[in-house]
TrEMBL record:
SUPFAM superfamilies: Nucleic acid-binding proteins (SSF50249), P-loop containing nucleoside triphosphate hydrolases (SSF52540). Plays a critical role in recombination and DNA repair. Helps process Holliday junction intermediates to mature products by catalyzing branch migration. Has replication fork regression activity, unwinds stalled or blocked replication forks to make a HJ that can be resolved. Has a DNA unwinding activity characteristic of a DNA helicase with 3'-5' polarity. SMART domains: DEXDc, HELICc. The gene is recG. It comes from the Bacteria. Its EC number is 5.6.2.4. This is ATP-dependent DNA helicase RecG.
């Protein structure tokens, strides 16, 4: 990496401003690419202007005035040989008034609008010129910037690093042969200094071959980095657990159901991983209700059978307690002791759990993030299971992994790790951001599950929905009514859970109505959930705290208030709380016609048309993009800056086998490529 201080012509002040953008090397400056381009290579006559076009005009100022009604504005009239264009500035400085005096020749660039006196530009860029001033010979790049750093300064800085020594190829020619992509140097020159005849649409939508070349390089760097992590993990040591399953067979014999073919396939994959002397890192994906918990339990039993402890971590107390109760019902008959650990439990109970985990009496510890606090010591942890893994930060997952004990070994053993997600991950996201993991998918639901019918209903039909809820509850079924907020918010003016609870009690005096939300004490919350599970509560008013882990087969109706405000994965998770029994189940999405945005409509259309979690996840990727879907804080992975997983899927497919071959045949090229592309990023930790 060449520090900016070695680049002649870059002042200390400019280097300091670039530092605010995270640019500290010449290579990083090169890869600071334009957001868009202005075509200042030609001048358009005023009579040829068209509404909505962004264009450049040159003329002489013939009039200037500052008006004060209806608001303060600087009005300038610019004339060429064909007509007059009006310029309007609502925010302006004395220097601009001085620049645009009558008689001054100006070149302005902006969007043509219809004004009161004819065509106008509002806040165009403007500069003083003479009749001999040449037009630009290249399209003008517009870069991401920061306060105090002008576009002109950025362009000057970038031009200083467009030099041959910095534009060399990092990878051999065969890498690009099948894709017919341009070389790195010409791609960089074209993107930073595009010629007037460069096709603006393909530059701006990034489909131009120069953009495609850089997108491919970036995807290759990502693949190389992730596969390096994969290889590094295989050099670590973990307990190799023999594939014996006496305990698992005893449990399966007791269960009132059989594993689906998809579950059996995944169990086999996990058993093979656990038999290896390096740590398993497997992501188990399965749609809502596909039976991930029993698969995780069978993995835990393989460890327990050989004397190793297992930890299972969930993001909320409701979900953790649900797991604890279900696993207790399965494992206690086998003589296995479980420990329960959360941040809110009484001190005496907590100390007892800590002691059981430390002395090895508890073979399975279930809990929330409390499991990775410093005071928690395992006798010998062999497997960490993380449910809804995307809800935990990268540091939290790493802390749990570090709980692995030495167990008398000369070197510390890392525990195996099984991560579970009911939010399916689109194929492209899995190939890129999870390329260092092994991925298993449970792609079928257990038999007997009835498909959930989804209905979209405007909130002006609320009375009909209330009648539907009453009928369901009086016929022996149960219902959820989900609200997005606990207390009144003036900004959003949404229906609140507290108000809805009071209203439902008033409207349905003969029904037993319960309330659960995230600010209740855990004991209160659990008591309400237990009463609902026992059918002592017929209608449960809840916030999205019930999004994951709640399993009440008798609940066959869900109403989601202000569904237009919720994300796709959240709506899909909530909907999955019904349809868990044999009764026909319905999810009603109540939405506000007035408050439903364009994106809100897109989401509702997707969730209405599909029950397939993978199709919904793909649509979510299309609507939100990978940044929001992953959350950089949670994943620990820097976002792609150039490549787009939907647009460039063909490049990702091409990059994967090339990355494998490069790692085997050309480590020096791999190192050079990662140095160029990932030097600014934190190391891509995946845990």
């Amino acid at each position: 990496m060449r520090p900016l201080s070695e680049i002649k012509g870059l002042s200390p002040a400019l280097r300091s401003q670039l530092g605010k953008l995270g640019i500290t090397s010449a290579e990083a400056l090169l890869l600071h690419l334009p957001l868009r381009y202005l075509d200042e290579t030609r001048i358009t006559a005023i009579r040829d202007l068209r509404l909505g076009e962004q264009t450049q005009v040159e003329g002489v100022v013939v009039h200037q005035e500052v008006s004060y009604k209806p608001r303060k504005a600087l009005n300038v009239s610019l004339q060429d040989d064909t007509g007059i264009l009006h310029l309007r500035f609502l925010h302006f400085y004395p220097s601009q008034i001085a620049l645009m005096q009558p008689g001054q020749r100006l070149r302005v660039f902006g969007e043509v609008r219809g004004g009161f006196f004819g065509y106008e530009m509002v806040h165009p860029t403007q500069r003083k010129v003479s009749e001999e001033t040449p037009v630009n010979q290249a399209l003008t790049p517009v870069y991401p910037t920061t306060a105090g750093l002008s576009q002109n300064s950025l362009r000057k800085a970038v031009n200083l690093v467009l030099q041959p020594a910095l534009l060399t190829e990092t990878l051999p020619a065969w890498v690009y042969a099948s894709l017919a992509l341009p070389d790195f140097a010409s791609s960089m020159h074209l993107l930073h200094q595009p010629s007037p005849d460069s096709p603006l649409p393909s530059l701006e939508d990034r489909s131009h071959p120069a953009w495609q070349r850089l997108a491919y390089d970036e995807l290759l760097a990502q693949q190389l980095s992730m596969r390096q992590h994969y290889a590094r993990r295989k050099r670590a040591t973990a307990p190799a657990i023999a594939d014996t399953h006496a305990l698992a067979d005893r449990l399966l014999a007791m269960l009132p159901f059989e594993l689906t073919a998809a579950q059996q396939k995944v169990v086999k994959e996990i058993r093979q991983d656990l038999g290896q002397p390096y740590p398993m890192q497997r992501l188990l994906q399965g749609d809502v209700g596909s039976g991930k918990t029993i698969v995780a339990c069978l993995a835990a039993l393989q460890l327990i059978e050989h004397g190793w402890q297992v930890a299972m971590m969930a993001p909320t107390e409701i979900l953790a307690e649900q797991h604890y109760k279900k696993l207790s019902s399965w494992l206690q008959p086998l003589g296995i002791t479980l420990a329960w650990l959360t941040g809110s439990q009484p001190k005496r109970e907590r100390e007892q759990s800590l002691s059981m985990i430390a002395n090895g009496e508890a073979m399975l510890a279930v809990g929330t993030h409390a499991l990775f606090q410093d005071e928690v010591q395992f006798k010998q942890l062999g497997l960490a299971i993380v449910d809804e893994q995307h809800r935990f930060g990268v540091g939290q997952r790493l802390a749990l992994r570090k709980k692995g004990a030495t167990s008398g070994q000369a070197t510390a053993l890392e525990p195996h790790q099984l991560m579970m997600s009911a939010t399916p991950i689109p194929r492209t996201l899995s190939m890129s951001y999870y390329a260092d993991l092994d991925v298993s998918v449970i792609d079928e639901l257990p038999p007997g599950r009835t498909p959930i019918v989804t209905k979209l209903v405007a909130d002006d039909r609320r009375e009909e929905i209330l009648q539907r809820v009453y009928e369901a509850c009086t016929q022996g079924h149960q219902a959820y009514w989900v609200c997005p907020l606990i207390e009144e918010s003036e900004a959003l003016q949404l229906q609140t859970a507290n108000d809805t609870f009071a209203y439902m009690q008033k409207v349905f005096p003969t029904l037993k109505v319960g309330l659960v939300h995230g600010r209740m004490k855990p004991a209160e919350k659990q008591a309400v959930m237990q009463a609902f599970a026992d059918n002592e509560i017929q209608l449960l008013v809840a916030t999205t705290v019930i999004e994951v882990g709640v399993d009440v087969p008798n609940a066959s109706l869900m109403v989601i208030e202000h569904a237009e405000r919720m994300g796709l994965s959240q709506l899909h998770q909530l909907r999955g709380r019904v349809g868990r029994g044999a009764a026909k189940s319905t999810c009603i999405l109540l939405y506000s016609k007035q408050q439903c945005s364009q994106i809100g409509r897109q989401r509702l259309k997707v969730i209405y048309e599909s029950n397939d979690g993978f199709a919904i996840a793909q649509a979510d990727l299309h609507i939100r993009g990978p940044g929001e879907l992953l959350g950089t804080r949670q994943s620990g992975v820097p976002m792609l800056k150039i490549a787009d997983l939907e647009r460039d899927e063909h490049l990702l497919d091409a990059a994967k086998p090339v990355a494998e071959k490069l790692l085997q045949t050309d480590p020096a090229a791999v190192s050079a490529h990662l140095q160029r592309w990932l030097s600014q990023a934190e190391e891509w930790i995946k845990v």
